[in-house]
Every structure is written in C-alpha cells, then in structure tokens.
Amino acid sequence: MFSDISPLTGGNVAFSTLEGRPSAYNFDNSPVLQEWVTATDIKVTLNRLNTFGDEVFNDPKVLKSYYYAISDFAVGGRCKCNGHASECAKNNGFGKPVCNCKHNTEGDDCNVCKPFYNDRPWRRATANNPNECLPCNCNGKSAECYFDPELYRATSHGGHCRNCADYTDGPNCERCLDNYYRDTSGTRCLPCSCNPVGSLATQCDNTGRCSCKPGVMGDKCERCQPGFHTLTDAGCRPCSCNPSGSTQECDVQTGRCQCKDNVEGFSCDRCKLGYFNMDPQNPQGCTPCFCFQHSSVCDSAEGYSIDAVSSTFDRDDERWTGQQRDGSSVSVQWSAGGEISLISDDYFPMYFVAPERFLGNQLLSYGQNLTLNFRVDRRDTRLSAEDVVLEGAGLRVAVPLIAQGNAYPGENMQTFVFRLHDSTDYPWRPTLTHSEFQKLLHNLTSIKIRGTYSERSAGYLDDVKLITARRGPGSPARWVEKCTCPQGYVGQHCERCALGYRRSRPDLGPFSSCDSCNCNGHSDTCNPDTGMCDCQHNTAGLSCERCKDGYYGDSTVGSSSDCKPCPCPGGSTCAVVPKTKEVVCTNCPTGTTGKRCELCDDGFFGDPLGENGQVRVCRACKCSDNIDPNAVGNCDRETGECLKCIYNTDGFFCDRCKEGFYGNPLAINPNDKCKACSCSPYGTVDRQTSCLQVTGQCQCFPHVTNRDCSACQPGFFNLRSGTGCEQCNCNPIGSTNGQCDIGSGQCECQPGVTGQRCERCEVNFFGFGLSGCKPCDCDPEGSSTAQCKEDGRCACLPGFVGARCDMCEENYFYNRSTPGCQQCPSCYSLVRDKVNQQRQKLHDLQTLIDNLGSTSETVSDKAFEDRLKEAEKSIMDLLDEAQTSKDVDKGLLERLGKLNSTLTTQWNRLQNIRNTVDNTGTQADKARNRVRDAEDLIGRAREELDKAKEAISKLDIKAPSISGDPNNMTLLAEEARNLANKHKMDADQIEKIAKDANDTSTKALNLLTKTLDGEALFCDSSLSFLKTTIKLY
Fold it and tell me: pLDDT tens, 22-31?
C-alpha cells in the first residue's frame, strides 16, 4: 500500500482485509478468507520511498535526507470467537482478551468443542446456523468421548465414547464387551461364563446362552444332551442306545443306556427273557411272550401282515346292537350319512355292542389300537370309569372315554384311540397281568362302547377299527409271536400238546399243561385234548385198560398178546366166567342169542345152524313197523310170519288195513296208518261198514256226498230218509241262495218272505220280489185289518184316509176320548163347499198363469201390465173372500197376505225395469248419434287420404342439374317429409275417432242386450212366483 504520491505530512495509509476479495460476500463459508483476516501480530514494513527521481543523481546526502515518519497507528478489529461468543474479556493472567464461549464450545477463540460434546465436528457459527456442539450418546455408560471422523462419515454421529462402564463397549457404549451379554432388564452386562470345554466360543448370545459343541447342552454348555455322554473337548459322545428299546438317554458318565421296562443290554438292544418284538411305539419296549404260559422264549413270527376289523356303516348298521346297563336290548338307529346312534330318555347309560366279527380270538390285537369316531348331541356329558368295556374268559376291564390322552366328546366327530395293553400307561381297570389281558383277548366275548352320557341325549358312532394281523403279504405285523416250546408242547403259541402228550386239564384248553400219555404199553400216542390213547394189540379204553370188543383177556399186563379173539360169530364181545373160566358171548350179532349166538332172537327168524335144512342167517321179521317192539312173539321164528299186528293192520307182513279200515299201513306216523271207515248208516248203501282201502270212500246213495256219506249235496236235504237226499226246490225270487236246511228242507228266505220254499210274503207284508217283501205298517186304529193289498194300501175304517189309514177324512176330526175319526157337525159342510169354490178359482188362476207363461208371442209392456193387473185383481178378490172366511183357515189368509206383498215388490221391480228401458233408449240414441259422427269422420278421413294420393301423384320432383342451386333438393325433401308427417297424424286421429265410435257402439249394444235379458228374466220370475203361490194353497 502507498500513501499519496508526495505526502510530506498528514498522509494516510489505509488497508482493508476484505476489499477486493472475491469471497467477501460469502465470508461464513470461506475458511481461507476467515484465516486471512485473522491476526495475532501485525507487522508493518517500510520498504520504499518516493525519491522523486533523486536516485538518478546518486547523491548520498540527498538520499539520506529521506525518512519515514509514523505519527498514529490504528488497527480496527474484534475478538475472533468464531461466532460462538457475543463478548470477550481480558485474561488477567496474560492481558489477552478471551472469548466468553457459548454453544458448548471453549478455547480462546471458541475454536474447539467442550469435552463430551463431540458428536459432530466443530464449526464456526454463521448468521443462519449457530453450529453448536452436540453431546455424545454414551447411553449413560461414559462421560468421555472424542470426535471420530470415520464414525461420523458412516453414521452422521462422530461422538466416540471412552472408558464405557458396566462392561459395555462400542462408540456409544451400546453393546456389551466380548464374552458379556445384556441382562433382561437391559441395564447392565453380565459375563457369559461359557464352559471352555463344552462351548464352541466364549461369546454367548443376547440371552446368555453359549454356542455348544455337538451333544452338549445347557446355557453355559456345561452338560451333555439327552442321548449323549462324557463331555470332552470334542463335545459329548452320542449314546449308542437302541431307540426302540430305550428312552434314548444314557448315563452321562458311563454312557450306559436307560432301557424300557422289558429291555436290557448296555445299549438296550435286546428284549429281556420272556419278551419279544422291540417296538419304539411300545412304552415298555418289548411285548411279553404269551405262549399260553407254557414258554418264556418267543420271537416275532414271519408271514403276518397288518390287518383290521372295521365298521364304516356306509350301507347299514352292520349288526351293531344297543344295550342298557341292565343288559336289556335297545334299538340302534342308522342314518344314510354313515353313522349309528343311540337315543336315551333317562339318566341310565346305553352302550353300542360290537357284532360277532369283532369278538372271538383277538389275541393278535394285543398291544394294538381300538379306534372309533364318536360325538354327542349336547355338551353336558358326565363320563364314567366304564365308557369302553371289554369282556372275555371270565374277565372284564373298562376305561373312561378320555383316558389315554383322548379329548372330551363334543358335538363334532372326534377320533378316540384305546391301546389294548396291560401297561399302567393305559389305565384299564381292574389292572390285569399281561397273561390275563391276553387271555381275555383270546376269548373276547363283548366290546361295549358307551353311547349316551346324560338325560335325553344321543350318541353317534362311526368308523370303528380294531387293528389285528393276518397271514399273507403286506406291511409286516411284528407283534405276532412264535414261541420256542418246551418238551411236550407244539404250535406257534405252544397251544397244542406234542405227539405222545395229553392235556392234564382238558377243560382249560390250550392253557392246560401237557403230560405224557398213559397207554399201558399198548400205544405211544394219544389224543392231545382228551388223552384217549391210540390203542393197539386189540385193546381199547382211555388208557388201553381193556380189550376191545370181540376180544378177551387182561390188557394191563402190557404185552402184545394180552387180548385174544372171542369165539363168537360176527366178532361180538365175550366174557370169561370167573369160576368156570368159560368164555360166553355177551353181545351176539343182532338177531341171535345163546352162549355162542347159536339161536335166533325174539323178533327174528331163520336157522343159523341149519338144523332144519339149509343154513339161514337170522333176519328181523318184516312187519311194516306195525308191531309192538316191546312185545314177545311178534313173529314166527321159523317162517317170519307176523303174529301180533297193531294199528288196525293185517296180513303176513302187517302190510294192509283190516276190514272196515282204510289208510296207509306203511305210514311212519301211527296216526296216519289205518283209520276206521265210519260210514254213515243213513247215507251208505245197505248200511255198509267197509270202504275203499286206500281212499276210505264209502258207497253213497244218490245226492249224498263226503267220504263217509254223511252229508247231502248242495241244494238237497233229508239225509235220514235212508234212501238218499231230496231236492230243496227253493223259490229263486224269494230265497237268498237256493240252499235249504239239511234236516227240515227249509229254504233261506229274503226279508219278509216265508214258506218252506220261500214262495210267498209273510202275513202283514206285501210286494213279493228279489229284495223280499215290505211290511204293510197299517195304522192299527185307522185300518180294518193289518194285512194290506198288493200295492201296499191298507183297508181303512170309515172316516180314515191315507195309504196307512193314519189320517182323518176331510170334514172329520180325531177325538181322543172316542176312538176313530168323528164326522164334523153339518154346519161345516158349508165351509167345505166354500173352500171347494176357492179351490176352483185358484185352479182357474193357475190355468191363466200357465197360459201366460207358455205363450210364445212377444208381449208388449202394456199388454203384460194389463194381464198382471188382471192377475192381481183375481188374487185380491180371492183375498177378500178368504178374509170373510178367516175362521175357516187363518193359514190361507197369511199366505195370501205374503202373496200380495210379493206382488207389490214385483210391481216395483217392473217400474225399475221400465225406467231402465227408457234410459237404455236414451243411451241407444246417443250411441247412434256417435256412430253417425264416427261414420262422418271416417268419410272425411277417406276424402283427405284421396286428396293426399292425388297431391302425391301430381308432385313432380326433378333432379337438380350440377350447375343449379344445391339447396333445392333439400327443400323438396323437407317439404315431402312435412307432408308425410301431416298425413300420418291425420291417419292416427281418424283411427282414434273410429276406435272411440266403435267402443261406444259396443257399450250401447251390451247395455241394450242386458236390458232386454233383464226384462225377460223378470217376466219368468214373476210367472214362477205366481205358480208357486197358487201351489201353496
């Protein structure tokens, strides 16, 4: 900078730090400029004078006369606080002004952030932003931090905490130190303490759980997992346990497996003695050998596959039945939805009872499942200890429905599973041993499933399945045993005795022990069930303790020659007489007898020794089963002739009926053999007692029937005449069926008909015909006799009249004190004559009305009115005359009064009809006028249409030339369109007028027709009324 060109005194040298600087107007954002204007010391350098060119002369004196003179030095400035202070004060220690910093800054110039306020880099304040320093986020775990540029670039927060407390770490003390984890409260970190042997690393997860080596478990990896043992640097060794026979756990120190109840071995890999079929589904591991308790060594049998006995109820109830607790039967309902149900009206439970195919020998279902689907219709079920019941072999077990992990029954179908096993895991009660449970299944006699559980409830059963096994291909059924039998036993289950052995207790069946056969040396084998020996050497008996039939001797000696043949024919048995030692035949062949069977027995004939000629074997006498087998001497022992025939038989062989008997003498049933002829003495010719031997038919008189001639043929009678039956000859009209009494010959007559042949009416009846005769029913007081004439009219006493003579004659009266009708006094004759005159007038009036009603001419209103007045006058005259003689008949007066009232009503109706006719005439005139108007309108319409046609024909539309006005065609088309619309409107109006005229004409015609029909109906009604009135009298 320079002063004036020649300032001798009073010159000013001014210097501005911002003048001419390009970024002077963006000072807050220019760190370079901010640094430029910042000064801690000011140095002024005087390095050039204006010599006015004297240096040219190089005069030292002149040059030394130039000098600098500074009289005043002023610096204009302020404290540099970088915008973070509004004032500064002198530091007493050094005399240097110091900024009074704000915005969490400090330093002489507020040029740094305070400790713990390093979350973002320090910046000087600007006019728009104070850029205050922000505190570090150390989550309350540290009071120290520093600014970390890398962290700031990554997270926009540069506060990096130091010396984090409570085992925390991280820029914000936000995580635990290595090998530490945060507790559940989230306030402090705890050491992981991972087992250095069992864990993969010393660091744990956020829950404190360490990462374990294979086979190691526990939060700190301090122990072996189930199924592992011996913790080492490589982890825990897996247990070598057989999963089917163990709980898959072993001793953590030794590795010895924890076996199921029926399994043994270090690895639980074999069944204990007496058990077989190691099964992972079996909680006891192995199934006990059954072998009918004869062996404890068994294994799974080959060749068996899984099978099931099931009921799905798709078509019917499949023979399932219902039963109450007391054993009484109840009906089972089947529904087409494929289920059966039981419905209860009381608290007592009902049971579903399984059919035969679920029962019997179900030993192969031991240890298997019985499954079923079941539901109830209401939720208030009360279960019991006997919801599922098994019975058999004198044993009984039951289990609740919810046992074995089953749910409570509900309104939806649920599956229930029951394992058939004696284990306490399946609480069948009472508790049975495995042998008892298998014994029950071997002879299963009943399966009951409870169906109802509350009052007025229902239970529904479906899909019952019992798992079993069968021989054949399929999924193998390993639970079927094959026993290794001890001596004396054979069979898959040791259920049979071996050859040479028998059951000691046959009643126990396969549960009985087997003993060796005892045959006295005559056999090595016997029946295994009964112990019966297969005797040889001509011996017999259970133990070959006697000689067989046809032999004699002592078989207990034990030699093969103990028994010798009997000296008897046919190999019959014999015996030795103890005293004489004589051999006597004890069971001669049928038909022989004697010590050596040399004679024919009673009931047999022949000559066994040929004493009378040729030898003839004794044969049974053939008496057709018509002898008494208990009688002696039924036939001749030489010839065989039957001597004592019974059942009314006769003949050499008793093979025909006796005289007077008939039938089949060879019939099996004695009641069907020979029966007495029993011919009727009245109907049989010559009173014979014999009949045909086969049919038993007796010889009958003519018109006699039946096998024994005991009845007349239909239409005949008098069997007892002894000469045959007589014909009934019943009247075909008077009898019911032409039959008569077989004794008296009396025919069966129609009602009211009598006579032996029903040929006449009974007394006091008449009208002989197909339906019988009718009673006369003559009045006993008015008729001279109870018998009527052929037409049914009774003969009346004087003064009585009527068909039954039950009314008094005119001018007679009935007097209770004097029987019969009494003649009225002579004065009543005058009244009768007057009445007869009135009757004649009424007859004339009837004739007048008949003529009036029957004429075919159309009567004008005036003529009809005159004739009606004439009839009224006649009736009024008749009424006046009747009133003069009202004492004769008051009823006539009342009827004539009603007649007069009715005629008045009819007169009023006639007036109404006249008015209606007049109105109808007026309406008809109006209708005619409207018809004429319609005709005029139609005429005018026709004229308009003709004019339109003529205008159309005269209309000449020429096509415009190309050079003509193009709007002419448009105008013509518009004119034609308007004309067509006008014609259409006129036509519509004409059509409407014509339709209205036609409707009006139709209504007028209908009204006129109804008026004329009403007038004719009134005339007919009036005539009918008059006729009815006259008939009343």
Answer: 777 777 677 7
